[in-house]
Each structure stands twice: as structure tokens, then as C-alpha cells.
Amino acid sequence: MAGMGRIITADDVRELFEVQHGRPLEIGNAIGSLFTNKKKWEYVGRVRSKRPSSHTRYVSQWQLKQAYRPAPAKFEVGVENGVRFCLTCSLETEACTCPK
Fold it and tell me: Among 1, 43, 72, 93, which is least packed, fewest CB within 10 Å?
């Protein structure tokens, strides 16, 4: 979720858990302990909580530090999302017949 440098909150973690497991995460305020490792997480601000039970109190926003993010995938020219395309005419193709 935060691997590519996305800014997240404890509310985001709760939502993702519910989507992946089909049930709410019921550990109370302990979810904030995910971000206690200051070597990995960087505090970047605060926003109002999205959860009704939080009564719009502020929650911290966190970002995974650069050293802990995965390396981006290598970009290949002529292939996008696994689909080959001609660099001249930009049409999806396996064997292009356009004049070069």
C-alpha cells in the first residue's frame, strides 16, 4: 500500500484490511503502533479522520522512507502493460507492417 511512497493514515490501513479480509479490523487505537518505527516511517502531516467513530479528529499521515521502498520496475520501450506496440505508428501489434 505504501510501497511506492504513497502517503497513508491508520484509516487507510483499516479500509484495506476490510477490503482484503471482508471484516473490520477491531484492535482499537493500537493500529497507530504500525508507524512507531521512525527508521521506516516519516511523519508528513495530519488530516481529519474518515471514520464516523473518530468524530473527525485528526489522524497522522505517514510515508515510507525512500530506503524501504521497492525498486521500480524496469521500463521497456515498446511494451506497455504486457502489450507490444509499434514505436512508429503506436498501434498494438506483434509484427508491424507500417512503412518505417
Answer: 72
How many angstroms separate the CA atoms of 31 and 68, rounded? 20
How many other C-beta atoms can be found within 10 angstroms of the C-beta atom of residue 85? 16
| Structural Rg of the chain based on CA atoms | 21
Task: Give the pLDDT confidence of 82-99 residue by residue, as tens digits.
Answer: 666 666 666 666 666 666
CA distance 92 to 89: 9
Quick one: CA torsion of 18, 21, 26, 31, rounded to 10 degrees?
-70
Task: Give percent of the chain above pLDDT 90.
Answer: 11
Q: Per residue in 17-55, is it b (16+ CB within 10 Å) or e — as a string?
A: beeeeeeeeeeeeebeeebeeeeebeeeeeeebeeeeee
